[in-house]
Write a structure and sequence with these properties.
By secondary structure, this protein is α/β, with parallel strands linked by helices. Helix content is 39%, strand content 15%. The protein has helices at residues 3-20, 39-45, 49-54, 70-82, 124-127, 130-133, 142-151, 168-172, 175-183, 223-232, 246-253, 266-271, 293-297, 311-317, 325-328, 337-349, 355-365, 373-384, and strands spanning 24-32, 56-61, 83-88, 100-103, 136-139, 159-161, 191-195, 201-202, 205-206, 235-239, 261-263, 285-288, 304-306. A 6-stranded parallel β-sheet has the order 2-1-3-4-5-6. The chain has a 5-stranded parallel β-sheet with strand order 11-10-7-12-13. A two-stranded antiparallel sheet has the order 8-9. Helix 7 (142-151) links the parallel strand 5 and strand 6. The radius of gyration is 21 Å and the shape is globular.
Length: 385
């Protein structure tokens, strides 16, 4: 069966399900596709008691690992068709005009996406019109509206600036307690540095040329020396691979000789019913490359180190929305082990290092900095239902 025929059959199936399924008033469906900063999960979890009494709120974990096939298809689309409001972070679902679709998305753009991707004539955002059907889109700020609409063009009056629900976790979660639930006695009174790189393996196509001889992709790296550095400065690195390539990264580093680097897996989060953002406020610092998590981390006003080891090749393969990434990123950039170690120590001791630039970018991207985004979004939902 070719792909076109499969698409036609699936569309007919979805249409039939929509027609025969009753859309239930005040039923809200939250589609969760990740445990790494899920806005739909955060909004669902942070619903107040009055909200839970007024609405029927359902969390549906739509993981690629949850199975395929006919039964899964029927179950998923019957549930979608039965909800008055469908809240998503990735794919868009609006079965008919009587359904309302709220798109929360899963990040703030710094990398090209959608129609801004070069040399991607088959991009789903160029060939489909799902985003034109979205009723409302959550946003952080006017700046984020501009970046998002450059990539996924739609009607500008669909944006609602409330701030991201997942960022409320940064204010209210018991991060250290959650970290210890997962890592136990491996965490004592250490300083915690989260390492959250973006992915390079994009559905089998490489983006960038980062090597995997070591976690940071440096040309030269001494695991023994770095471990000694972390031990001597009472630091632990918590390394969370991007969900897109977790299996690949773990295959590289499962037995890597770094006892002070702990790998955080999706299965750890699932087993403890925790989102990654419910751990982040336990950290003292973030290390990333191009992950947009740095925008959210600005709410802490804590140090951020960037390790853009393959910035030229990544820029050529994926590209950025700004010129240039190195000037844009609000923290020191490191390209080797020695500089990384020096910057970790300096960032931990000098709290004002890059503070002014962090504040500038925080104000540019976050209208709200108060941990009340879910409350504002629930108030909006109250108005549209």
């Amino acid at each position: 069966m070719n792909n076109l025929f499969k698409k036609i059959i699936r569309k007919i199936g979805r249409d039939i399900i929509t027609v025969i399924t009753k859309c239930k008033k005040n039923r809200i469906l939250f589609m969760q596709e990740s445990w790494s900063g899920s806005n739909s999960y955060a909004l669902w979890k942070l619903a107040g008691e009055d909200t839970k009494k007024k609405y029927e709120i359902i969390l549906y974990q739509d993981s690629a690992l949850d199975g395929k096939g006919f039964t899964h298809f029927i179950k998923k689309y019957r549930l979608i068709s039965s909800a008055q409001l469908i809240v998503t972070t990735h794919a868009s679902y609006k079965p008919s005009k009587r359904h309302i679709h709220l798109q929360l998305w899963h990040g703030v753009f710094v990398k090209k996406n959608g129609v801004m991707l070069d040399n991607k004539p088959d991009s789903v955002f160029k060939t489909q019109k799902d985003w034109l059907k979205v009723d409302y889109i959550m946003s952080y700020s006017e700046t984020c509206n501009t970046f998002l609409n450059a990539c996924m063009p739609t009607n500008s009056n669909k944006y609602i600036i409330t701030g991201a629900p997942r960022n409320d976790f940064l204010f209210v979660s018991e991060g250290m307690s959650n970290v210890k639930k997962i890592f136990g006695e491996k965490i004592k009174d250490d300083k915690l540095v989260f390492f959250l790189p973006t992915f390079r393996d994009y559905y089998g196509k490489n983006q960038g040329n980062k090597n995997y001889n070591n976690p940071f992709g440096f040309v030269k790296f001494s695991p023994e020396g770095f471990d000694k550095f972390l031990e001597g400065n009472k630091c632990k690195i918590i390394f969370k691979p991007h969900p897109h390539e977790e299996a690949l990264i773990i295959s590289y580093f499962r037995d890597y000789p770094l006892k002070n680097m702990l790998i955080l897996k999706d299965s750890d989060l699932v087993a403890n019913s925790l989102d990654l953002y419910e751990l982040l406020n336990a950290s003292d610092m973030l290390i990333t490359d191009y992950s947009s998590v740095f925008y959210d981390y600005l709410l802490f006003d804590k140090p951020i180190i960037f390790a853009p080891v393959d910035v030229d090749s990544y820029s050529a393969a994926r590209g950025f929305l700004i010129e240039s990434f190195e000037n844009w990123a609000p923290g020191p950039k490191v390209f080797n082990q020695d500089t990384l170690q020096k910057e970790i120590l300096y960032c931990l001791s000098e709290k004002d290092y890059y503070r002014e630039k962090r504040a500038w970018m925080r104000n540019l991207h976050h209208r709200y900095k108060d941990g009340e985004s879910s409350k504002r979004l629930w108030e909006f939902i109250e108005r549209i239902l």
